[in-house]
Design a protein that fits this description.
Length: 229
């Protein structure tokens, strides 16, 4: 009986089972990302790649913020044990807990990036010096890197929005490895979108969320040690 109980306890803990649990979690999270972003994803795929549609692109991206936040939460709290798999429940819990908090971070950044995008798209008509374009690009990169940090923090910790904003900015400088990793992820996402389409990027949503989570691990560890002890 004791041997049977021991075998039962260890069922689902082997490497093959852990790999299957990992893939299953990614697939479930991906399906839920697609489901929760569907109201924006469908019109996004129908929009023409025209600069006049930049504000519409941003509006279509609004549902992506809470979906990514929920994905980060679900992947952070995933189990490698096949007998303890609840990725859908974790996703919906993260979606419910972080919905408003993620939008407080996501929407203002979308507004900033939209303004920058519109300025760059109409740069020739503005009659401003050429260096201004470089400054706008630099601001856009910093805003996007800040957004990545802030989204991770708001997904995994219960801080006030103002504290999340400060920590996200602080850790851009304090964890250069995280910043570099997120910058590479940003470039990869942009290149993949340009080479294929937004649909391909959407189909890899859970993978990008996982990479963001992994690159942000040093920041997560420091916040846990210094601000939650």
């Amino acid at each position: 009986m004791s041997e049977l109980a021991g075998a039962k306890r260890h069922f689902g803990n082997g490497p093959l089972s852990q790999g299957a649990a990992f893939i299953y979690t990614l697939l479930v999270v991906e399906l839920l990302i697609l489901l929760t972003t569907l109201p924006g994803l469908v019109p996004l795929l129908l929009l023409a790649a025209d600069r006049s549609n930049i504000p519409l692109f941003a509006a279509c991206a609004i549902p992506l913020g809470p979906a990514l936040s929920a994905a980060l939460y679900a992947l952070r709290n995933r189990s490698d044990d096949l007998t303890e798999l609840h990725p859908a429940a974790a996703f919906w819990r993260g979606y419910r807990l972080n919905f408003l908090g993620s939008l407080r971070i996501w929407v203002p950044c979308l507004v900033w990036l939209t303004l920058i995008g519109m300025s760059l798209a109409n740069f020739g008509a503005a009659g401003v010096p050429g260096w201004w374009a470089g400054l706008l690009v630099a601001i856009g990169i910093v805003v996007t890197l800040w957004l990545g940090n802030a989204l991770v923090i708001t997904s995994l910790f219960s801080f006030r929005t103002i504290d999340i904003a400060r920590l996200a900015l602080l850790f851009i400088a304090r964890t250069p490895g995280v910043t570099l990793g997120n910058a590479c992820l940003l470039v990869l996402t942009g290149l993949l979108t340009a080479a294929t389409s937004e649909a391909v990027v959407a189909l890899l949503g859970s993978v990008f969320a996982l990479v963001l989570l992994l690159t942000s691990r040093p920041m997560i560890n420091k916040i846990t040690e210094e601000f939650t002890a």
